[in-house]
Design goal:
It comes from Parnassius mnemosyne. With 963 residues, the chain is α+β, with helices and mostly antiparallel strands. The chain contains 29 helices and 27 strands. Helix content is 41%, strand content 15%.
Length: 963
């Protein structure tokens, strides 16, 4: 490496170091959280970096006098950064001594102000009042110093509210006002404190410590509610009823025995009882030093506190864990002992001659405890339980054949709270009078169970299980779309083990390939979420039963064919390989199936589902047409007020910070992105709103994240900002999850292309910014917000999108449905244009034509005039008859002029179309240097060929024949 090159690398390193210090100082949050020591260290580093840079620059100029380095820019950056560091150090030096003097004159202990991150609004009031008392009331501090401390004590979301305010005196009061406006919501605080009170966990043990904790939690929330002017003195009856349910049974019994049943107790008496009981339990607890005398209790104590007494005996007897040699826990509570294998536990117990029941060293004495294993009910400790393995007969060829019994399983669609289909696995059971569902699935569906009555479930051995909760489920068949079952299910924790219990090989099962199975993975162990009883079982049966010789029975149902009965399976030592091959073949079959689907003629839709019908109804009821603009509602699965979206601001904020870093790294991208947003606002497609007016935790507000997408093939828009409607909120729900998709209202690509090729003269154009020409009604725009600022030094703003937005799954339906509505309204005035929009328009691409020149001119005129009525503008005009475009401005044409030596090729619905020679043509997909030496790679290569008309079908089929 030459000396000059080495010096330039060292110079670049110095510039990078200075830039990093400048970036640190530029961020207000960094300055607010930094100490004097940190700032002094960065100041020293900054000075040394400049000295090193100047020395290197002199050496570079000595070797290259024409070096173009701008030293002035480096010096400007240095002095600006140094000035900001000195200003911050000056503020810290002034604030710390003054605070110290204030505290010392009053001779008070240091008071630590806690930090506040904005996640829990109930913590704002204590934080704010303590900050006012310690910092704001300190008259020796200036407002800018108080603002500095305020920033220091704020984190995350709370800091983002004021972080962009300038560090000047007048910003302090503004910061306090913004914080109080955002977090000091009295109604929300009261609701949060009541919820905390209701969510206090029940006491598992009625000992002194849990009672003390319970009292503390209750009193803390009640005192806070009283300070918020809530009339808690009149809540005694309700509070005692709620809190009484959270006590253990022995404490409840003691409370009922102590109080007068004729007199209603008050909260003061209730708390006094708990205080008295906690004190009594503390005083009656045995001392640890009294090991020799066993603890004795009276008859009343034996009845009320057997758990406490047993715990006391154990504590006195075991003072050392033999396994970890620790004195603070017994061996059966030892985390290390629980983490080792069962073989290690058994060996340790045997080697140390410990009792297999209580795990104590009793030597030759007989254990006095009679408890049994909770799993197998045998007389040993549960930690020493050994799972019994199934007996396997080993033969010389390791191909032992076993008969496995399959139970009839089906896959069904269950409708959740938001109307979405959730695919689950169910078991058909003709021997069950009731249907069951797991509690896990109920939570996933977000449905509310009923607790009206209890049901006694009698199982094998007359064992009775009491179930108190039921739920109504709506089930759909995956095979017959119009069949639905409304089933009342009892809720249980678990229905059965995964079925089947072991993987079953079906390669030799002779199951016919033409039948449609209800569960295509019936041979793979998987969880059962629903058990369908006898009422559903017999109502689901259809004609058709296939008996496989020496194998299972295939019964036809509305869910498809179920497989049940005994099946011979070969157990080999290659399960992993078999599983891999099965999955691989499944994917290969899907690829082949997709190939033939693309070549098949499109099938007409015979019916409309309820979701698509609902989308159409919402559109018809909400659409308005005023001042040449359509305005519509977003098609939601429920009303906006019923949505449970949750907090989307936090996630959108984090993604925006990542976007800012990306824009900072690419100046050209940053310029294009800012121009796009500026144009978006200037056109009225977005407007600025006050973010403080939103309750970001409510279900009716949603913030969209956004990012850039490049399209190099686009003639007009290389950069497009895409909004992400699938971003999950903290409730794990996105806007697209609560939105209906809407039906397809335009013709299929196949029909459009066939009709397009039938014309002698063609006319193609594109609707400019079609989505953004349709407005969203005002009461739904709060679901379309984005965060934005031009640079990190500016405060964050909220932009509310006013139009149909790309990124939402209903956008295509809304835009195309408005286009269809426009055509139907004015089809008598503009018949040619209306016909073109209805029949030969795909999203925003119009592929029209005519066999007559005059009619072609008229069609062009009608298209312009009709779409102008809906505020739609046409551009990218092109035609194989160029004179028809003479009155079209050059900027609205796809090609400004025609040159016979130029290749005039455009993309028409995914196909390349030569506008001059008037034909479609195909190109071989790029292999990207890969060798096509496997069937899968060949299939992938063929799959890249888009041929909706089947024009090159014979060529593609020839390639597929190798499969």
């Amino acid at each position: 490496m030459s000396e000059l090159k080495r010096l330039k690398i060292a110079r670049a390193h110095c510039k990078g170091a200075l830039t990093r210090i400048e970036s640190f100082v530029r961020e207000p949050a960094n300055i607010a959280s930094a100490t004097i020591d940190v700032l002094e260290a960065r100041k020293d580093k900054l000075i040394s970096v400049l000295k090193q840079y100047e020395s290197i620059q002199l050496d570079v100029l000595g070797l290259d006098e024409e070096d173009s380095e701008d030293i002035g820019e480096m010096e400007d950056k240095y002095y600006m950064t140094l000035g900001k560091i000195n200003e911050a150090i000056k503020i810290l030096n002034k604030s710390e001594p003054s605070q110290s003097n204030c505290m010392s004159s009053s001779k008070l202990p240091n008071v630590e102000v806690p930090t506040f991150d904005g996640k829990d609004c109930t913590k704002f009031k204590p934080f704010y009042e303590l900050f006012i008392a310690v910092i704001d009331n300190n008259r020796t501090l200036s407002d800018v110093q108080k603002l500095f401390y305020l920033r220091k004590y704020l984190l995350d979301e709370a800091l983002s509210v004021i972080v962009n305010l300038p560090l000047v005196n007048k910003s302090y009061q503004e910061a306090l006002t913004l914080l109080k406006k955002r977090f000091d919501n009295k109604a929300r605080s009261i609701c949060n404190h009541i919820n905390i009170l209701l969510d206090i966990p029940p006491m598992l043990k009625g000992t002194a410590a849990p009672i003390r904790t319970f009292i503390s939690q209750v009193q803390q929330q009640l005192h806070t509610l009283k300070n918020l002017d809530e009339p808690i003195d009149s809540w005694d009856r309700v509070l005692i009823c709620i809190l009484n349910r959270k006590l253990d049974s022995y404490t409840i019994l003691a409370f009922q025995l102590e109080r007068d049943p004729q007199i209603l107790p008050t909260m003061v008496e209730f708390i006094a009882f708990l205080e008295k009981r906690a004190m009594a339990l503390e005083d009656s607890a045995p001392h640890k030093s009294n090991d020799s005398a066993p603890h004795k209790s009276n008859c009343f104590d034996n009845k009320l506190r057997p758990v406490v007494r047993a715990a006391n005996v154990s504590t006195q007897s075991i003072v050392l864990c033999e396994f970890s040699k620790m004195k603070d826990h017994a061996i059966f509570n030892c985390p290390k002992f629980k983490m080792v294998t069962i073989e290690t536990r058994l060996s340790f117990v045997k080697d140390h001659k410990l009792c297999s029941i209580c795990l104590r060293d009793y030597s030759d004495h007989v254990c006095k405890y009679k408890f049994k294993c909770r799993i197998c009910k045998k007389p040993h400790n549960t930690l020493l339980h050994v799972e019994e393995e199934a007996k396997v007969s080993l033969v010389s060829n390791s191909n032992a054949c076993n008969a496995v019994t399959l139970l009839p399983t089906v896959k069904v669609k269950v409708i959740d709270k938001y109307g979405r289909d959730i695919y689950v696995r169910a078991l058909l059971d003709s021997g069950s009078q009731a249907s069951f569902v797991t509690n896990t699935l109920v939570k996933e569906l977000n449905l509310k169970p009923f607790s009206n009555s209890s049901s006694n479930i009698i199982g094998i051995g007359n064992k009775i299980t009491v179930i108190n909760q039921t739920i109504n489920l709506s089930l759909r068949s995956c095979v017959y779309k119009d069949i639905t079952f409304n089933v009342n299910c009892l809720i249980v924790d678990s229905i059965t083990t995964p079925l089947p219990q072991n993987f079953v090989h079906i390669s030799q099962s002779n199951i016919p390939e033409h039948i449609l199975l209800s569960d295509d993975q019936f041979n793979i162990p998987s969880d059962i979420s629903i058990l369908l009883g006898v009422d559903v079982y017999f109502n689901s049966l259809l004609n058709g039963c296939i008996k496989i010789s020496d194998g299972p029975v295939l019964q036809n149902t509305v869910f498809g064919y179920v497989v049940a009965g005994k099946i011979e399976t070969k157990n080999k030592n290659s399960h992993l390989v078999s599983n891999f091959v099965i999955c691989d073949e499944g994917k290969l079959e899907n690829v082949m199936e997709n190939f033939w689907i693309t070549e098949a003629l499109p099938q007409p839709i015979t019916g409309v589902t309820s979701e698509l019908h609902k989308s159409e109804i919402i559109f018809q009821e909400s659409v308005t047409f005023e001042h040449n603009r359509f305005s519509v509602d977003l098609p939601l699965i429920c009303s906006k007020d019923e949505l449970l979206l949750g907090d989307s601001f936090s996630i959108a904020w984090q993604r925006f910070l990542s976007l800012e870093k990306r824009l900072k790294q690419s100046p050209m991208l940053s310029i294009m992105y800012k121009d796009f947003i500026q144009q978006y606002v200037a056109m009225g497609h977005a407007k600025k709103v006050d973010i403080s007016t939103y309750d970001i935790n409510s279900g009716s507000v949603y913030f969209l994240s956004h990012h850039p997408v490049f399209n190099e093939d686009s003639k007009t828009t290389k950069l497009r900002v895409v909004f992400d409607g699938s971003m999950k909120t903290k409730n794990k729900i996105s806007l697209n999850d609560v939105m209906l998709n809407g039906p397809v209202v335009q013709s299929e690509i196949f029909d459009i292309l066939v009709l397009f090729r039938s014309y002698l003269f063609t006319l193609l154009c594109d609707i400019e910014k079609m989505f953004r020409c349709v407005l969203i009604n005002d009461h739904h725009t709060s679901l379309q917000n984005i965060l934005w600022r031009k640079n990190p030094d500016m405060p964050i703003i909220c932009l509310q999108l006013q139009t149909v937005t790309y990124g939402l799954k209903s956008s295509t339906f809304l835009a195309t449905r408005c286009l269809l509505e426009l055509a139907n309204r004015y089809k008598n005035c503009y018949p040619l244009a209306a016909k073109a929009i209805i029949l030969i328009t795909y999203v925003d691409d119009i592929l029209a034509g005519s066999d007559n020149i005059d009619e072609l001119h008229l069609l062009k005129y009608e298209l312009i005039e009709l779409l102008k009525l809906g505020n739609f503008n046409l551009h990218k005009w092109c035609s194989n008859h160029h004179p028809v475009l003479e009155d079209i401005p050059n900027e609205c044409r796809y090609f400004e002029d025609l040159n016979i030596n130029r290749d005039y090729v455009i993309k028409a619905l995914g196909l390349k179309y030569n506008i001059v020679l008037d034909y479609f043509y195909f190109e071989t997909p790029c292999c990207e240097g890969k060798v096509l030496n496997t069937k899968r790679s060949i299939l992938g290569f063929i799959g890249k060929i888009f041929d909706p008309l089947g024009l090159i079908g014979p060529i593609i089929v020839s390639a597929k024949l190798i499969m």
